[in-house]
Write a sequence for this structure.
C-alpha cells in the first residue's frame, strides 16, 4: 500500500503489524507437505465464494430445488462453472484435508503444545463431512435422494438413539421437503458459522505455536523460529 | 542494455501479489457475470390471441383481457394482460396497455373528457389524462400509453408486448 495512505490507515488501524505478523513472518525452510493446510484453506475460500453465489439462484423447496439447480447449470452465464467449482472444490477439500492430516501425523505435529490445533483440525474434518452430508442432498435429484437415504440408514444403526437421530436428520419419518430445508439451513447457516469459528481458532493456534520441528531433527531453533 | 536490479525478496513478493490478483480475478469476474447475467437478458414475448377482428367496434376502444405465460427463471407464470384495442377501419388496429405510465394504475376509457376535447383515458390515481390515441393531455404522466404489437391471422387479432 502506498506510503502516505498506508501510514494514514496504519495510525488508525495498525494494519502493518497484523500484515507483517501474518504474511511476512520468517519461517524455516519447509517441505511441500507444509503447504497442504493453506491449500485446504484455499478450497474453503472457493467453496464459501461459490456457495454464496449459488444461493442467488438456488431455492430449497422440493418443487423448485431441482429446477433451480438445472437453471444454474444450463441457463445462467457461467453457472456451470460456479456450480462445478463448488462441486469439485468440495471433493478437493476432503482430499486436501486428509492429506494435511496425514502430514501432521507423519511429523508428529499434533503433540505438545499443539493438541488444541489438532483437536480443532479434527473438529473441522467432522464439519467437512457434515457439509458433505447436507450439501449433497441440495441438488434434489435421484442421486441426492438415494445417497441421503443410505446415509440416514447408517445413522439409524447407531445403538439406542439411531431411530431418534434418523428422525432428527430427516425432520420426520422420511426424507421430504422438511429434510431439504433443514439440510439447507445447516449447510448455509449453522455449519459455516461453526466453520469460521473453528478455522479462526485453528489459524490462531498455528501462528501462536509456529511450525513443529521435524521428528528426525533436534528441536533446537525450528520450534522457536516462527513464534511471536 | 540495463538490467534493472530487484532484490529476490521483492521479486517474489510481487509474483505472489500478481498470482493472488490473478486468482481473485479468475473467481471475481465469473462471479460478476453469474450474478448480473440473467438480470440483463431481455426475453421476447409471445403473440396472444385477443379475439376475432369483427368483434372490435370502430367508434370506441375495447378492453380485452388475455393470459400470457411468461418464463421467469425456471418458473412459468401466467399473467393477465389488459389491452385497449381501437380501430378506425376494422383492419388496422392499435393496442394500448391499460397501465398508466405514471405509476401503473389501471386507466379507464371515458367518452367525453373536457381537457381532451373528446374521448380519452383517465387514471383515477392522480388524475392522469390521455387522449384517445394514448397521448399525454394532463396530470403527472411521463409518456403516452404503452403500445403493443398487433397482427391479424385468419381473422384473429393477436397482440404482443414490445
Amino acid at each position: 500500500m502506498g506510503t502516505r495512505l498506508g501510514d494514514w490507515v496504519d495510525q488508525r488501524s495498525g494494519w502493518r503489524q497484523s500484515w507483517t505478523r501474518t504474511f511476512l513472518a520468517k519461517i524455516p525452510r519447509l517441505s511441500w507437505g507444509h503447504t497442504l493446510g493453506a491449500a485446504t484453506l484455499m478450497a474453503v475460500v472457493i467453496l464459501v465464494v461459490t456457495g454464496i453465489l449459488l444461493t442467488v439462484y438456488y431455492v430449497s423447496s422440493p418443487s423448485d430445488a431441482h429446477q433451480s439447480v438445472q437453471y444454474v447449470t444450463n441457463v445462467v452465464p457461467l453457472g456451470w462453472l460456479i456450480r462445478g467449482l463448488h462441486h469439485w472444490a468440495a471433493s478437493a477439500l476432503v482430499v486436501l484435508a486428509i492429506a494435511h492430516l496425514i502430514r501432521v501425523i507423519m511429523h508428529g505435529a499434533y503433540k505438545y503444545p499443539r493438541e488444541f490445533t489438532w483437536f480443532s483440525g479434527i473438529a473441522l474434518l467432522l464439519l467437512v463431512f457434515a457439509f458433505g452430508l447436507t450439501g449433497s442432498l441440495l441438488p434434489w435429484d435421484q442421486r441426492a435422494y438415494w445417497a441421503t437415504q443410505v446415509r440416514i440408514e447408517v445413522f439409524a444403526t447407531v445403538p439406542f438413539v439411531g431411530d431418534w437421530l434418523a428422525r432428527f436428520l430427516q425432520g420426520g419419518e422420511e426424507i421430504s421437503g422438511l429434510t431439504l430445508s433443514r439440510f439447507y439451513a445447516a449447510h448455509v447457516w449453522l455449519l459455516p458459522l461453526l466453520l469460521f469459528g473453528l478455522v479462526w481458532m485453528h489459524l490462531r493456534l498455528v501462528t501462536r505455536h509456529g511450525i513443529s520441528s521435524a521428528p528426525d531433527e533436534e528441536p533446537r531453533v525450528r520450534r522457536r523460529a516462527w513464534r511471536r | 542494455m540495463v538490467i534493472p536490479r530487484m532484490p529476490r525478496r521483492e521479486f517474489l513478493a510481487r509474483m505472489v501479489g500478481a498470482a493472488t490478483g490473478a486468482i481473485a480475478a479468475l473467481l471475481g469476474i465469473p462471479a460478476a457475470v453469474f450474478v448480473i447475467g440473467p438480470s440483463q437478458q431481455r426475453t421476447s414475448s409471445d403473440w396472444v390471441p385477443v379475439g376475432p377482428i369483427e368483434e372490435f367496434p370502430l367508434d370506441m376502444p375495447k378492453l380485452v383481457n388475455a393470459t400470457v405465460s411468461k418464463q421467469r427463471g425456471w418458473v412459468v407464470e401466467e399473467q393477465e394482460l389488459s389491452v385497449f384495442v381501437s380501430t378506425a377501419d376494422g383492419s388496422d388496429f392499435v393496442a394500448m396497455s391499460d397501465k398508466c405510465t405514471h405509476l401503473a394504475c389501471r386507466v379507464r376509457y371515458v367518452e367525453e373528457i373536457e381537457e381532451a376535447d373528446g374521448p380519452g383515458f383517465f387514471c383515477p390515481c392522480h388524475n392522469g389524462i390521455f387522449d384517445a390515441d394514448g397521448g399525454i393531455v394532463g396530470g403527472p404522466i411521463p409518456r403516452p400509453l404503452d403500445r403493443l404489437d398487433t397482427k391479424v391471422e385468419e381473422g384473429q387479432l393477436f397482440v404482443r408486448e414490445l
